[in-house]
Specification:
Elements: H1 5-9, H2 14-21, H3 26-34, H4 40-47, H5 55-70, E1 73-83, H6 108-120, E2 125-130, H7 139-149, E3 155-159, H8 165-173, E4 178-180, H9 188-194, H10 203-207, H11 209-215, E5 220-223, H12 232-249, E6 254-258, H13 277-290, E7 295-298, H14 304-310, E8 317-319, H15 347-356, E9 360-362
Length: 372
């Protein structure tokens, strides 16, 4: 068995994949839609420009598969930003080292204060987010935050800097529910352009992070790319390739895919390759048809009206009332953001929207006590 995804990754070339996707025929798309189980090349067909005319059929199949596998349930969660200190330069991120903004890392009391705000709103699933700074937001800080938050939430996930094997093993022992790590782009030739400085500039260390998470047997691994950096179709093919490899090798873990589009942020570039709303729908449906069991997550980067539409076509979780700055819920209202959100509705308002569509709002679907 391959040691890591790096071995699989080098079997495919960006330009060759691009050529395949942009030369798909209608018969290829029809065949992919008619098949039961599809492979990554069928997935590529569903990503193609040719597949656009099949979007109504794709939406119908995606909805059916989602209801079959997940019922009408949509989990609500909220991010909890603990630190915006970062040693990386990333051209699309407000936390980038070169941005002269006030930096803040929450202390114990501030962490609990922010947590209680979300808990009082009914949230039971939180996502801890930090910048990548190994002096302040290091693994010891993250682990301590988890200990502080365990008594308040049934589910804690993290989106922090890539860690080593021992660190993930330690977090697994603390019953971390999920670790999210986005490659941002699988275009190795251009990766350095977006990440010119810092540990994140090491393409392969980031690429092999999900392998380290999988070896620790953490419950769920989250993947994704930043839509708008490179060709979303090619990037998504490599994400699906990565997902396929991970599911076969780390079968004890569950998996999720997120769909972040570039948003305005201090000092950030604008999107390089645009993905339209209709294309994002196509991408979501392609994932659901490719992998009926994968969890699909939708953030508040998207506007309220579009999130209302997307809620029905394949997503299993949505964030709500998000703040992307440390202390954003109770301490710092209008500064230090990683990026601007676009859906400013409250948790109750998002929950009401979901219910109005005949779907079920889930606040809690997992508890640490089940695994102790």
């Amino acid at each position: 068995m391959n040691h890591s995804f790096k071995d699989i990754f080098h079997q495919y070339k960006w330009k060759e994949t691009e050529h395949f996707i942009y030369n798909v025929k209608e018969s290829d798309v029809e065949r992919a839609l008619q098949k039961g189980d599809i492979n990554v090349f069928d997935f590529a067909c569903l990503l193609s420009p040719t597949a656009k005319k099949f979007l109504p059929e794709m939406i119908e199949k995606s909805q059916w598969l989602t209801r079959q596998r997940f019922g009408k349930n949509i989990l609500l969660y909220a991010p909890l930003y603990l630190s915006n200190e970062c040693k990386n330069i990333c051209t699309y991120c407000g936390f980038s080292l070169g941005n002269k903004i006030p930096r803040k890392t929450l202390n114990e009391n501030e962490i609990v204060q922010e947590a209680l705000f979300l808990k009082n709103k009914g949230i039971q699933h939180i996502l801890i987010v930090t910048g990548e700074d190994n002096q302040t937001a290091n693994v010891a800080y993250i682990a301590h935050a988890v200990d502080l938050l365990k008594e308040h939430f049934t589910n804690i996930s993290i989106e922090v800097q890539p860690l080593n094997d021992e660190d993930y093993q330690m977090l697994a022992e603390k019953n971390i529910y999920a670790v999210l790590v986005y490659q941002e782009t699988y275009n190795i030739e251009n990766y350095k352009k977006y990440h010119p400085k810092g540990k994140k500039s090491n393409f392969y260390y980031r690429l092999e992070t999900p392998d380290r998470i999988g070896k620790a047997e953490i419950h769920k691994i989250g993947l994704g790319v930043l839509l708008g950096l490179e060709d979303w179709r090619v990037d998504s093919f490599f994400t699906a390739l990565h997902l396929n490899y991970l599911q076969k090798k780390y079968w004890k873990s569950r998996f999720s895919v997120s769909f972040p589009r570039i948003r305005p942020a201090i000092g950030a570039i604008h999107e390089n390759i645009h993905i339209t709303d209709e294309e994002l729908k196509q991408l979501v449906c392609a994932y659901r048809i490719f992998n009926p069991d994968v969890e699909l997550s939708l953030s508040t980067r998207e506007c309220a009206e579009f999130r209302n539409e997307l809620a029905e076509i394949g997503f299993t979780s949505m964030s709500a009332e998000s703040k992307t700055n440390p202390g954003g819920y109770t301490l710092e209202k209008n500064s230090l953001e990683q990026f601007e959100i676009d859906d400013n509705r409250t948790i109750n308002q998002v929950a009401a929207m979901i219910k109005n569509k005949g779907l079920e709002v889930v606040y809690k679907d997992w508890d640490y006590v089940l695994f102790e």
